[in-house]
Write a sequence for this structure.
């Protein structure tokens, strides 16, 4: 067996380092998706706990379901300049991708882990082409979520409930969004991720929304991420 020289090892290490550096690049979306439209954008702030969230209403005007399209959030300050993005390498996938949008469907996507350098006034949203087209509508795994209940917590106001995987497919990194509306206005929102929800099993969610849920109408949505 031939021995690998120190020089060869060094070349391999350099090549691996270069490949890793190339992979660790910020999220960019050079070409927006032609079918997924941005209908509305809401920026929410919790100045006490220094938290910022963005809620984006999206509609899939295409004929196929879109699975995991990337979404870039560029927060804009009062002076019109960028104060932060969700583009950092290594972020949780649910903070940079929309789990699923079925054809003709309108959804609200939430990112509550934003870190602006100063308070944003609005946000610019770009949605890219999906990773893949999704399954037919009647084959999307069914995940039921109970209505959220508000619970006072030392860490803030929590919304709690239960998610049940009614399908025969284990769900990985299941995204759950809780959104509070007052009339047509979004006044609070938060997200949670269930790492592993086995087929036929249930798991309690516990989400801390950004904003004020008092007196608002709460809704909760779970988005399947695994289809076979």
């Amino acid at each position: 067996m031939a021995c690998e020289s120190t020089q060869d090892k060094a070349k391999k290490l350099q090549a691996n380092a270069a490949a890793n550096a190339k992979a660790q690049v910020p999220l960019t979306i050079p070409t927006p998706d032609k079918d997924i439209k941005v209908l509305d954008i809401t920026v929410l702030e919790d100045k006490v706990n220094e938290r910022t969230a963005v809620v984006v209403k999206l509609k899939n005007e295409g004929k196929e379901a879109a699975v995991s399209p990337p979404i870039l959030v560029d927060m804009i300050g009062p002076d019109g300049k960028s104060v932060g993005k969700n583009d950092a390498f290594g972020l949780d996938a649910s903070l940079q991708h929309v789990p699923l949008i079925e054809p003709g469907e309108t959804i609200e996507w939430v990112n509550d882990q934003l870190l602006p350098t100063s308070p944003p006034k609005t946000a610019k949203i770009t949605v890219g082409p999906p990773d893949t087209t999704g399954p037919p509508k009647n084959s999307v795994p069914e995940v039921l979520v109970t209505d959220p209940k508000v619970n006072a917590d030392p860490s803030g106001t929590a919304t709690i409930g239960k998610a049940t995987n009614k399908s025969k497919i284990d769900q990985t990194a299941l995204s759950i969004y809780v959104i509070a509306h007052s009339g047509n206005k979004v006044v609070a929102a938060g997200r949670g991720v269930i790492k592993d929800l086995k087929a036929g099993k249930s798991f309690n969610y516990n989400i801390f929304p950004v904003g004020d849920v008092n007196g608002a109408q709460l809704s909760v949505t779970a988005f399947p991420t695994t289809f076979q």
